[in-house]
Amino acid sequence: MPAPMLLAVDGDPDALGRVERELRDRYASSYRVVGTRSPDEALAILTELADAGEDVALVLAAQWLSETTGSELFERVRLLHPHARRGLLVAWGEWGHRRTAEAIFDSMALGRIDYYVLRPATSPDELFHQAISSFLLDWTEARLIAPHTVRVVADAWAGRAYELRDALQRCAIPHAFYLSDSEEGRVVLAKSGAGARLPLMVLPDGQVLSDPTNMEIANATSAWIDPDRDEFDVVIVGSGPAGLSAAVYGASEGLETLVVDEGGVGGQASSSSLIRNYLGFPRGVSGRRLAEQAYEQAWVFGGNYALMHRVSDLSQVGERLVVILPEDRRISARAVILATGAAYRRLDVAALDALLDVYDAHRSALPWGCAALAGKAFSLYRRRGGARRSPLPDFYIGAHAAVANLSVLSRDENPYRSYFPRVVVVCPA
Ligand SMILES: Cc1cc2nc3c(=O)[nH]c(=O)nc-3n(C[C@H](O)[C@H](O)[C@H](O)COP(=O)(O)OP(=O)(O)OC[C@H]3O[C@@H](n4cnc5c(N)ncnc54)[C@H](O)[C@@H]3O)c2cc1C
């Protein structure tokens, strides 16, 4: 497979030359670097690569191009190469021009660009490279080829494989999933030794866990509590943004701090692909990255974690508070902070509730992993020339069925047959 492409599009030949030079100098050994002044040529290149199934890691384009705009071009890029990062090139001070500023705001709000990038000035321009390397890191994460990725192999999307991915997702651990009969799955299995049982988890340090329990995952990923400690200054229940903020402040003030969560880190926020309103992240930050960084920030101040541990009780014993963890483990503290987030109640719609009983149906949240599978099917559909305006609902239904091992009742079985061949489709005659 040829190296992924970095594509720059700018009508100004000097500016384009500087961008190409910086990209080539720093990245040419791992990426193909191509620059063009023509948006049409850029689209022709991108279409050809999409047809050939080749990767585009990054597209940089100026806003004001001949006969089109950067924003319009990025809209096409998003459809052709959904994983490619998109950076709008602007000259220094150009954000002060009303038209360009509005183009930046609109493109960000509509998800057409990931962020704007200052055109390089001197060489090397480390500010430019800082932006480029963050884009490339985001791209590797989206393509599941980031360093230190946990690999999971199983013979189906559903069942225990789904729970394992859910646990990893909730611990904000980058992971890739392979079916055991896929090419990648077979390679991982071959390297994992004869006794490996499915589902299988291979950690970045080479440890192989066969059909691990959640507690084994917690131990292997260091998300567990030191067995000899049962006293802390403060215990924080919940490792969502609120709990992690409390942990950073508690630990940084020198308090012996323990964060306990029944899942992983990040709480609800870890399911958000892009949070744009968190202080200090003007480009936005994925919930997973935010959780990772907050976890690490409290940890370097000496914070402790017990992930995948549910707190089942809280009581006062003398001067101290005691929380109860699984296996009747008791931890005492001078203070306990409850940062357990929100629990959602169902809408009280009597007519709908009545139907649920009649059909013995239940409502549940979309499972983790569903969006990734739906997105994968959607990009395959686009590569095959699919042009329907809103096929995503079908892909979500198919992906949900595949991940949660459900059957689908539909008049049209074709979309499911083509994109989710393992899903059982019941088609009324
Ligand atoms: C898809 C999505 C996108 C979002 N995007 C944004 C956004 O862009 N901007 C924004 O401002 N907000 C966003 N939100 C909302 C934001 O994530 C929440 O407001 C935030 O996570 C609340 O933080 P929290 O720490 O109070 O609670 P939570 O994040 O809910 O964390 C609570 C934690 O407590 C743990 N817990 C509960 N009970 C126990 C127990 N008994 N024992 C151990 N652990 C327990 C839970 O497992 C959970 O991890 C989004 C939410 C979702 C779901």
Give an overview in words.
- It is a single chain.
- The protein has helices spanning 13-27, 39-52, 70-80, 98-109, 126-142, 160-170, 183-191, 214-220, 241-252, 287-300, 350-358, 370-383, 392-404, 414-419, and strands at 5-9, 32-36, 56-62, 64-65, 68-69, 85-90, 115-118, 150-154, 175-179, 200-202, 208-210, 231-237, 257-260, 304-306, 313-317, 320-325, 329-338, 408-409, 425-426.
- It has 429 residues and is α/β, with parallel strands linked by helices.
- The chain folds into four domains: 5-142, Rossmann fold (3-Layer(aba) Sandwich), CATH 3.40.50; 150-220, Glutaredoxin (3-Layer(aba) Sandwich); 231-338, FAD/NAD(P)-binding domain; 350-426, 5'-nuclease (Rossmann fold), CATH 3.40.50.1010.
- α14 links the parallel β18 and β19.
- It is globular and about 75 Å long.
- The relative contact order is 0.08.
- The protein binds flavin-adenine dinucleotide.
- Residues 237-243, 260-263, 267-269, 271-272, 275, 277, 310-311, 339-342 line the site of flavin-adenine dinucleotide.
